[in-house]
Amino acid sequence: MDKYVIFGPQGSGKGTQSELLCKHYGFVHISLGDIFRWQMANHTKLAARITRIMNQGFLVPDEIVEEVVHDRLEEHDWNWGFVLDGFPRTRPQAEFLFENWNLDAVIYLDVPDEVVEERVMKRAASVPAGVQAFTKRLDDTPEVLRVRLREYHEKTKPLIELYEEKRLLRRVDAMGPVEDVYRDIVDQLKLAKPSTFA
Question: What angle, rounded to 10 degrees, do the helices at 45-55 and 62-73 form?
Fold first, then answer.
């Protein structure tokens, strides 16, 4: 049973690479964004709490995020393992994860900020008006994105240090084509190569 975390900045390809790993190896893709989107679409009590917090301009607190992830992992539907996408985002969240589950590796998709900006702006422009999605924000402008990236790096630095301390970090250059990035991930995780990368 393999347990992985995949992380990187916006536009680094976390969702795509997670889905490929799960397709070829039978892992379960656990995306925090997907969970929150489901909560919003179904107007749950948790969605109401999250909306109220975000409307006040705050980030969703660690304890709420941890509760959501804990409940999801406790479903134990990941017989072959899981790939966590979008969690943890802070060192306290990572420490919570380590207290409850043993990880096999953490995949860091490394992309320069200028490439992230190009990808995110292109993606934001392609999302239809009126579609509520975590991948498109009303404030998706180059200036705001640069602020978010700076904050992302500030929060990510202690996370990377923690993963390096535990010798779990696998850095992957995510600049190339999807297939090349995926091959690098498979190599670094020492997984049996799939017969096809499609």
Answer: 150
